[in-house]
Amino acid sequence: MKKTYKRELAILLLVWLVYLVETKDINIVEVTIWPIFSFVTAAFGFDAYGKLQQGSTKSPHGRGTERSSKRPSRENQLPDDWDNK
What we know:
The protein is mainly alpha-helical. It is 56% helix and 0% strand. The chain has a domain at 6-55.
């Protein structure tokens, strides 16, 4: 899977926004704050959503995702010691 650097760019944009707030006029900050926060929110939101989707393919308690009727039967897998006694 190819790395897209969305989160790294989002952090860099936040650092740049802090720089703008400290050094530039308020009008520049008012213009740039919405696009920066929109991108940052989307970058981290999509990342979190993607991680949730990856985790949803695993079922709880380590069980497989296939139905029991699709799994091979476990009959005759272990020896039956009850008949030998």
